[in-house]
Design a protein that fits this description.
homodimer, 296 residues, mainly alpha, Farnesyl Diphosphate Synthase, 74% helix, globular
């Protein structure tokens, strides 16, 4: 990424972080004995994630012709759902990961019961934020909630997690790609579409955003697989080799590193092609390339 | 309850059961490898609960002058949220209960990972159902989602669960009653209000429903405490004495059985007083009395 793109990425991520902090302060004002769980929720929410999903929400809203600010509720809701999934994925009955983003995972820091409830509360809060946002029309709010709930549910992210948990050792290429499309793809797709919806964009634009997200999501997941085999643990912020340790087949383990790299590059190029329909797409193209070349 | 009320209770619960079954079939049609999780979700959803919350939704819609059917999405969404909370409460890191409603609890039947995800999926699905319901206006859907999410979140049911988990051994009367009002009261209140909202009722009616629910919810929880000390395990469908075993202070253990019974009676009478504002309130009055005298 050039200096301009880096600055915009930081700017958009900063907008999300500020809004999340504002929401926390508002919730804390009303909270009594629930202050503990709010700390657990925001511990994970502020753990220095890349903020890719909320940045996509804001940027798609902007290139659809509206202010990025209009999409902040959708961006925060999406980051809450993403964080909920990380907290629950890390639990002992799931992946049993002690570290996340370079810090102890939520259940290591707050105990299992609080981590379970913090995840539940974040998922639920995403819908509260969208339903309560007075700046958007009721129609837009309903569209956003519908989009987010379908992307999160049994036909989306949670469904992908189910398949991952149940069949991880026996994947063939088709089931693996289906799982990726649900587990990672669905939420990235929701991010891009929710940005367009927040801007009141029309159907052809929303569909182009969806195709972009589909390809980007798959490239993103394959890159994750590659990093799990090759990354520097200190830079990645979590243990490497966990897929192999857990007996999980991934695209990279099925196809090899070289084929995986080439496929991720091809998908990223195709994703960028879908951006031609949007004006002022320079930042998104750079971001897509950056996700492909990242080492964390 | 007389024969008439018993018949109406069965009729309303039957409507909810049919709609839930319809929803399951629709989801299963689209599901591939996620069929397992759908079985886990409906295993708990169909485990023969009393259906008190969805029945309240339907009946409040009816006595506000609309068809009970109009409130079926809200009723099903609420039962999903209630069931999600039971599944997660039963997990080993929470109450670690092996039995629920006379059957093995969800994680005993499907494993911990699937139970965790089934709970997540039910919570999420509640919002999908409300957002997608084409029979209600966008405004009404947003009001329902807002009501449900606030009742479920850190200031409602989940917040009550947090306080219960963190402070159960040290409750004084005030914190205990606050916890009851969140953990049980919030969702019962949401049930009554969502029935009114589904009917498009005006504010004074919604507020009367809220006051009714507040009193009924507290009576309901105190009755639960009494049953945990006195019930027949076979009729209750879950182990008795679990509060004492887990070192939990309850209203009944703080105040004694006799005072608790008297207070629950007084609250139920006051709750019924709030129903005077509604026409055709006979069934709800009988249901309230039935909840007080139940032995399960």
């Amino acid at each position: 990424m050039d200096g301009f793109a880096k600055k915009r990425l930081d700017g958009l991520a900063g907008m999300v972080n500020s809004r999340l902090e504002e929401i926390k302060q508002k919730v804390l004002e009303k909270a009594g004995a629930q202050a503990d769980i709010i700390e657990a929720m925001w511990y994970s929410l502020s753990a220095g994630g890349k903020r890719i999903r909320p940045v996509l929400v804001l940027e798609f809203c902007r290139i659809c012709g509206e202010n990025a600010e209009d999409a902040l509720p959708a961006a925060c809701a999406l980051e809450m759902v993403h964080t909920f999934s990380l907290i629950h994925d890390d639990l002992p009955c799931m992946d049993n990961d002690d570290m996340r983003r370079g810090k102890p995972s939520c259940h290591k820091a707050f105990g299992e019961a609080q981590a379970l409830l913090a995840g539940d509360a974040l998922l639920n809060f995403a819908y509260e934020i969208l339903a309560e946002d007075g700046n958007l029309s009721a129609e837009t709010r309903v569209k956003l909630i519908s989009e987010l709930s379908k992307a999160t549910g049994v036909m989306g992210m949670i469904g992908g997690q189910v398949i991952d948990t149940t069949y991880a050792g026996e994947f063939d290429e088709k089931l693996l790609l289906d799982m990726y499309s649900m587990k990672t793809g669905a939420l990235l797709k929701a991010a891009c579409k929710m940005g367009c919806i927040s801007a009141g964009a029309d159907k052809p634009l929303i569909e182009a955003a969806e195709r972009y997200a589909e390809k980007l999501g798959l490239a993103f997941q394959i890159k994750d697989d590659i990093l799990d085999m090759t990354a520097d643990e200190k830079i990645l912020g979590k243990p490497v080799g966990s897929d192999e340790k857990n007996g999980k087949r991934t695209y990279a383990s099925l196809k090899g590193l070289e084929d995986s790299r080439r496929y991720a590059e091809k998908l990223t190029a195709e994703a960028c092609g879908e951006l031609e329909r949007f004006p002022d797409n320079g930042f998104l193209k750079q971001l897509s390339g950056h996700l492909l070349s990242r080492n964390y």
